[in-house]
């Protein structure tokens, strides 16, 4: 599951900033590494195996959620592609085109 979330973060980076640096992808990968470190730390301290997803999922979800909320892009990430602003004006239908197609 964290791998799918990281790929989602990468795709949203490409949609939000096509020419920019991958912000959410980098944050999610760093959070994944931190979660993996926490997994190994708990293994060492408790001397028993722990499920890695117990640490990986919260680390990746919380980090990207907080970062997107601070940047004001939370609802773009939450809604996925349907909530992204259109980059190409050809995708927008004007009111005249809509009324012509209905009539």
In short:
With 103 residues, this protein is mostly helical. It has five helices and no strands.
Major sheet: none
Rg from Cα: 19 Å
- The count of DSSP E runs of length 2 or more, i.e. the number of strands, is 0
Mean pLDDT: 82
Helix content: 55-70%
The helix-strand sequence is HHHHH
Number of helices: 5
Distance between the termini: 47 Å
The SS-based structural class is mainly alpha
Strand content: under 5%
Shape: elongated
Low-confidence stretches: 88-103
What would your notes on this structure say?
- The chain is mainly α and about 100 residues long.
- It has helices at about 1-15, 25-45, 55-70, 75-80, 95-100.
- Helix 1 packs antiparallel against helix 2 (about 25-45) and helix 2 runs antiparallel to helix 3 (about 55-70).
- Residues about 90-103 have low confidence and may be disordered.
């Amino acid at each position: 599951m964290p791998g799918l979330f990281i790929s989602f973060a990468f795709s949203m980076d490409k949609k939000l900033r096509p020419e920019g640096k991958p912000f959410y992808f980098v944050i999610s990968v760093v959070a994944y590494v931190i979660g993996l470190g926490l997994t190994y730390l708990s293994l060492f301290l408790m001397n028993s195996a722990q499920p890695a997803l117990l640490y990986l999922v919260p680390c990746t979800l919380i980090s990207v959620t907080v970062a997107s909320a601070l940047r004001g892009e939370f609802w773009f990430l939450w809604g996925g592609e349907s909530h992204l602003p259109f980059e190409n004006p050809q995708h927008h239908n004007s009111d005249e085109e809509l009324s012509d197609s209905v009539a």
